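Need residues for this backbone.
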């Protein structure tokens, strides 16, 4: 039977299945001006290189120069050569394995397209980046969540599952300052994970938007240095500006052609002008170091302000570790009668918002998520962060 205008029978099964979450609907409320939002995952616009992008655009679009016509023309699907080479240098890998993507979000979707057949097992850390689960879900995998802790994915639990017969196509990790947990995968677990990938024959997807936002300690060697079965993702979003929509993926050679064909079907190529802009800014090594240094110092100050305000306002009611980098604090409410989805509703009434933990877990594990919350410190100044913590305390007290 044909549908009427309001019975969307023409939707594909996949589109009809996709649902906006209750949390997403609640978070729309947080856009009101009186709400102090710790919910967003946006970088701080104070770090956007506005003047440098303006100057670089002028240089690139000089009508007498060589680049202007190229920067406004269709380009190769793989990406602008200069930028591929720059990424290859950063990743210490061959440029032939580097594809420029429209944000790393597109790379996640293209990985889904090229690796997932319906029903294939894909392992994500619990908790994991919502956007990755959304991208993979578009290709009908069986998502399996393996718990993580403050040192990242519990590779011992993964090994146990593998020994019992789990056969993932790939394992997805945000190995540095994860979104949402803020955790960094320890050196020992990186070695273990790489070893498991080689022994059990799966691919590791190492997504790393936050690794350069580090103010304490040193970065463990990346997974790609430990196994050839790694796809590494990076992005200009947190180190330049997300509006550029420039990301990159470094992959084993066997994946390059299928990945490029999938990207061709999706968007032909990433914005040429924006790729040239990213190249101009990132190849100015001293300038980029200075800009990144200023951003990292700002995030550190914000992270410390929020952490100390949460500890002093909420005391033992909250368990939250300080951050050594990234954009998020991951916290646990210690009283078992507080469900953070309900806390969010109360918090919004008190003028503050966060993302409840349930958003970041595969559905089967949603029940173990109820006590968690993700708090972003990236966009509010230290005074507002202190006020946000006071409001959160008031919301918590309303449970008494
Ligand atoms: C872990 C992770 N991966 C990927 C992305 C997507 O970033 P983009 O598409 O802007 O590169 C985000 C965005 O917040 C993220 O947190």
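Answer:
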């Amino acid at each position: 039977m044909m549908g009427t205008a309001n019975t969307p029978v023409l939707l594909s099964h996949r589109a009809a299945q996709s649902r906006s979450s209750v949390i997403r609907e609640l978070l729309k409320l947080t856009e009101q001006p009186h709400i102090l939002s710790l919910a967003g995952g946006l970088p701080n616009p104070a770090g956007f290189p506005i003047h440098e992008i303006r100057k670089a655009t002028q240089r690139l679009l000089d009508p007498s120069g060589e680049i202007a016509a190229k920067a406004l023309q269709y380009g190769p699907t793989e990406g602008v050569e200069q930028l591929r080479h720059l990424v290859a240098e950063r990743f210490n890998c061959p440029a032939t394995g580097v594809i420029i993507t429209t944000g790393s979000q597109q790379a996640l979707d293209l990985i889904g397209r090229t690796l997932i057949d319906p029903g294939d097992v894909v392992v994500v850390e619990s908790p994991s980046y919502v956007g990755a689960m959304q991208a993979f879900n578009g290709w009908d995998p069986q998502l399996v969540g393996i718990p993580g802790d403050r040192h990242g994915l519990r590779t011992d639990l993964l090994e146990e599952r593998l020994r019992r017969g789990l056969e993932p196509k790939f394992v997805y990790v945000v190995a540095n300052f994860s979104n949402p947990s803020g955790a960094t995968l320890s050196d020992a677990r990186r070695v273990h994970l790489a070893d498991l990938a080689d022994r059990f024959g799966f691919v590791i997807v190492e997504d790393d938007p936050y690794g350069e936002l580090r103010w304490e300690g040193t970065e463990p060697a990346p997974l790609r240095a430990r196994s050839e079965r790694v796809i590494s993702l990076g992005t200009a979003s947190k180190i330049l500006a997300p509006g550029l929509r420039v990301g990159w993926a470094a992959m084993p050679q066997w994946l390059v052609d299928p990945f490029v064909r999938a990207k061709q079907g999706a968007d032909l190529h990433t914005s040429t002008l924006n790729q040239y802009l990213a190249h101009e800014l990132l190849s100015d090594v001293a300038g980029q170091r200075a800009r990144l240094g200023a951003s990292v110092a700002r995030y550190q100050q914000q992270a410390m302000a929020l952490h100390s305000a949460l500890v002093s306002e909420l005391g033992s009611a909250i368990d939250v570790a300080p951050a050594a980098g990234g954009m998020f604090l991951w916290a646990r409410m210690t009283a078992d009668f507080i469900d953070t989805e309900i806390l969010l509703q109360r918090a919004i009434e008190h003028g503050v918002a966060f993302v409840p933990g349930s958003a970041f877990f595969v559905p089967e594990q949603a029940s173990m998520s109820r006590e968690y919350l993700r708090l972003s410190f990236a966009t509010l100044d230290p005074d507002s962060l202190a006020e946000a913590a006071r409001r959160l305390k008031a919301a918590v007290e309303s449970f008494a």
